[in-house]
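Example 184, ligand adenosine monophosphate.
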Amino acid sequence: MTDLSRFIRDVPDFPRKGIIFKDITPLLSDPAALAESIRRLAERVEKPDAVVAIESRGFVFGTGLALHWGVPLVPARKFGKLPGKTVREVYSLEYGEDTLELHADALKPGQRVVVVDDLLATGGTAAATARLVEQLEARVLGFLFLIELTGLGGRQALGAHPAEALLAYEVVGEGPRGASAAGR
Ligand code: AMP
C-alpha cells in the first residue's frame, strides 16, 4: 500500500497567514497514486446510487468514484454556476457565508448518495451538501474525503452520517476555524 501522504504538499500561509494549505497537485500528477486513492476510498463505503462531488477539488475524486462504481456524478456547485432550476444551502465561512447548489432534478427521492470532497476541515461545506441532498429527499450514505484535518469539529458537524478519510492531520496552533476558509 502506497503512503499517500508523500503526495500531499503542505503550503504554509496560503491563501493567507496562519493557514497550512494541503496541496493535492502532487497526487494528481501521479496516475498510480491517484488511482490507488480512488480505489481505497471506494472500499470505505457501499456502492451508492449516485456520487455528489463538491466544487472544485471534490470533482476529481468524485469523478473517479462515479466511474469506479458506474453511477451518476452530481456536482454541488457554488452559487450561480448551475444553469437549471436549483436548490440552495447557505453555510458559514470564517468571514461571512457562501452558498452551494444542486440541480433540482439531480437526485430522485430515496436515492442513496455518497458525498465526496478532497478535505474535511470544519465540516461546514460537507454538511451544507448533505442538506442539499436531503432537500431532494435523497439519503446520505456517508462522506468520503482524501484528507481530514482533526481538531476542527468536522466530524461532529456531519452528525450521525459515517465519514471516512484516507489521511488525517491534527491541526495545532490555530484557532478553531483556522484551517478553514482556505477556499476551494
Ligand atoms: P470546511 O467547510 O471547513 O470543512 O472546509 C472544507 C473545504 O475547504 C474543502 O472543500 C477544502 O478543499 C477546503 N479547505 C479547507 N481547509 C483547507 C486546507 N487547509 N487545505 C486545503 N483545502 C482546504
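Summary: The pocket of adenosine monophosphate is lined by residues 19-22, 54, 57, 117-126, 154, 179-180, 182, 184 (CB under 6 Å).
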